[in-house]
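Marked as duplicate of an earlier ticket. Keeping the data here for the record.
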Amino acid sequence: MATRNGSAQWNGNLQDGSGTLTVGDDVWSGDYSFASRFEEGEGTNPEELIAAAHSACFSMALSAQLTEAGHPPDSVKTTAHVQLRNVDGAPTIDEIRLETEGDVPGIDDATFQQQAEEAKAACPVSRALAGVKTIELTAKLAAERP
C-alpha cells in the first residue's frame, strides 16, 4: 500500500498568523488561519480536509460494498459535516455527520441501509477517526428513474 503525504507551514502566532497547507505533491494547496478555523474567515482548515477525506473514503467504501453484494452503483455522493467543539476546555472533533445518496439500480432501501452501515464500519477513514464521539450516517437512495 502507498504512503500518502500532506504538509503545512504556519507563520506567526496563533491569533494573527497564517499558514498554507498542501495535499500530496502539490495536487492542491490552500491558505488557512485562526479565522478560517475557529471563526468564519476565508480559507480552509484541517476539519474541512477531514470532511473531504471522509466523504471520499466512504463513497469508495460504499461503492465497493454495493458492488460486492451484487448491486454496482451508478454513483455515490457523500457530504461529511465535521463539528469542532470545545470539550473539557480543548478544541475537539466530537461529531461527524455523513450524508450519502446512492444511485443504485435494483436495490431496496433496507438493503441499501445495511450496505451503508457496513461501509461506514469498513471505511479506513472512519476507522482512523474511531476516537470521535459520534459518527452519524444518513443514507438515501436517489429517486427512482422513470
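See parent ticket for discussion. The longest helix spans residues 46-68.
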